[in-house]
């Protein structure tokens, strides 16, 4: 008889569990950048600086001026499923922060050399924690946190082999920060690559006084003045859903869908309901394969959307997707009403 191939069931070692989880959360340097910037925003940062080397593979350092992590909690921050953002199921159902799974730092640390440097406003000095050795020592910096990630995927060469050129990885990292920047005109962002300033988007001076102006300014800074010139404002409230942002004029459409930014409660998402609704609004204005450009911000009661669908939280599930589809479609259609009338007039002239 052939021997049974079965082996005994065993608990996986902690480190391996984190490395497996890392496969879901961290696909490439840009995924780590996204998670670290999420954390900085959750910490209330007003200025976030991202420093990269070799497209983020050699180094990703994200520096913020947020609330910091108390000395005693630095080791806890690195543990799997350890979070300061939710404590029970009720919190999960109305989560307002970017993070809540307590996975990112543990996952990234398991496939890199990570160091945390942080200081709260109450502390007289900062502390630095080396993730691998666990060494904790006093250090110097102002209030806030720097997370340093070196040699991403050094322990998982299979994953490292899937990485593209430094230039391509850098472009993905910049795109990750751009997505955040479009959602938060009240926060300043800077991206450095090997000592060179790649992008810088300054915080709006008075985001609370005039949120529309702040967003307009940020959209221009990030997507260019062409985007502003060739787009119209979107503003609609339908039931429980509010849609704002800007929709590109038909002439601004591109061959690729690379300028379609959708946000749900400030979170960048990829969502078929939203893209389909927007696309439908352009139905009679765009022909062939042309892709509209837009930045759309959906605000909805957090209870009506489930953000805990995917480890990276880039997908969401709406409780009533018809309601959201209608709101987005009507919002964009309304915004395009004047340009549509002009196009029809021109066509019949
Ligand atoms: P999550 O964001 O889901 O809570 P993370 O693994 O990303 O999980 O982070 C774990 C915890 O570490 C956070 O809940 C937060 O308390 C703390 N933390 C991480 N990054 C920062 C930061 N930049 N500033 C302040 N606290 C942070
Ligand atoms: Mg997080």
TrEMBL record:
<comment type="function">
    <text>This protein is involved in the repair of mismatches in DNA. It is required for dam-dependent methyl-directed DNA mismatch repair. May act as a 'molecular matchmaker', a protein that promotes the formation of a stable complex between two or more DNA-binding proteins in an ATP-dependent manner without itself being part of a final effector complex.</text>
</comment>
<keyword id="KW-0227">DNA damage</keyword>
<keyword id="KW-0255">Endonuclease</keyword>
<feature type="domain" description="DNA mismatch repair protein S5">
    <location>
        <begin position="219"/>
        <end position="337"/>
    </location>
</feature>
<comment type="similarity">
    <text>Belongs to the DNA mismatch repair MutL/HexB family.</text>
</comment>
<keyword id="KW-0234">DNA repair</keyword>
<dbReference type="GO" id="GO:0004519">
    <property type="term" value="F:endonuclease activity"/>
</dbReference>
<protein>
    <recommendedName>
        <fullName>DNA mismatch repair protein MutL</fullName>
    </recommendedName>
</protein>
<keyword id="KW-0378">Hydrolase</keyword>
<keyword id="KW-0540">Nuclease</keyword>
């Amino acid at each position: 008889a052939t021997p049974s191939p079965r082996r005994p069931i065993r608990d996986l070692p902690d480190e391996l569990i984190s490395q497996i989880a890392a496969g879901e959360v961290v696909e490439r340097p840009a995924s780590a950048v996204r998670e670290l910037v999420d954390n900085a925003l959750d910490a209330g940062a007003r200025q976030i600086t991202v420093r990269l080397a070799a497209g983020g593979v050699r180094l990703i350092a994200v520096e913020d001026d947020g609330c910091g992590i108390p000395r005693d909690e630095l080791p806890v921050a690195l543990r799997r499923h350890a979070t300061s953002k939710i404590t029970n199921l009720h919190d999960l159902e109305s989560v307002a922060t970017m993070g809540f799974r307590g996975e990112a730092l543990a996952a990234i640390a398991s496939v890199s050399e990570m160091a945390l440097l942080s200081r709260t406003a109450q502390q007289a000095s900062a502390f630095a924690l080396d993730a691998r050795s666990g060494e904790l020592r006093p250090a110097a910096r102002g209030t806030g946190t720097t997370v340093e990630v070196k040699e991403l995927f050094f322990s998982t060469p299979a994953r490292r082999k899937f990485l593209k050129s430094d230039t391509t990885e850098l472009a993905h990292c910049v795109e990750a920060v751009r997505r955040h920047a479009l959602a938060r005109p009240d926060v300043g962002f800077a991206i450095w690559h090997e000592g060179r300033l790649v992008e810088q988007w300054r915080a709006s001076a008075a985001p609370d006084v005039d949120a529309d102006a702040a967003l307009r300014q940020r959209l221009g800074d990030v997507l260019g003045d062409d985007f502003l010139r060739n787009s119209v404002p979107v503003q609609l409230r339908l039931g429980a859903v509010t849609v704002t942002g800007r929709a590109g004029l038909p002439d601004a459409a591109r061959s690729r869908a690379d300028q379609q930014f959708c946000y749900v409660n400030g979170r960048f998402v990829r969502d078929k309901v939203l893209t389909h609704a927007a696309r439908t609004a352009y139905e009679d204005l765009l022909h062939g394969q042309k892709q509209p450009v837009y930045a759309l911000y959906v605000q909805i009661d957090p209870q009506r959307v489930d953000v805990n669908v995917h480890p990276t939280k880039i997908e969401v599930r709406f409780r009533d997707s018809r309601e959201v589809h209608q709101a987005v479609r009507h919002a964009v259609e309304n915004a395009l009403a004047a340009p549509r009338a002009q196009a029809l007039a021109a066509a019949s002239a």
